[in-house]
Design brief:
The protein is mostly helical and 93 residues long. The protein has one domain. Helices cover 62% and strands 0% of the residues. The protein has six helices and no strands. The longest helix is centred in the middle third of the chain and has 15 residues. The protein is flat, with a radius of gyration of 20 Å. The model has no long low-confidence stretch (mean pLDDT 80).
Length: 93
């Protein structure tokens, strides 16, 4: 999931999360999601304007992590999941 997808098509992202986690009854909660998304349309993200010197300091301090992130080519998918119902039936809490 990319941030841009979440911004542009949040309901699709939520549906994909439900599907990916094998959660049931997305349709039952869809109306609630739509209401919340309608309220969130009023939200405006913060805009930060950094001077060149501040930007260079941030870049220098975080260079290791920035480089590591840029070198990652793809996200690693989750290869297994836990069905909460099966887990609860077979395990005591």
């Amino acid at each position: 999931m990319r941030y841009e997808e979440l911004q542009n098509k949040p309901l699709n992202v939520l549906r994909n999360i439900y599907t990916g986690l094998r959660l049931q009854d997305f349709e039952a909660i869809e109306k609630t999601f739509l209401k919340k998304l309608s309220e969130e349309k009023k939200y405006k993200p913060f805009e930060y304007k950094y001077s060149e010197s501040v930007f260079k300091k941030i870049e220098a301090r975080w260079a290791t992590y920035i480089n590591e992130w840029q070198n990652q080519t793809t996200a690693q998918p989750v290869k297994e999941y836990i069905n909460a119902y099966d887990y609860a039936d077979n395990n005591s809490f």
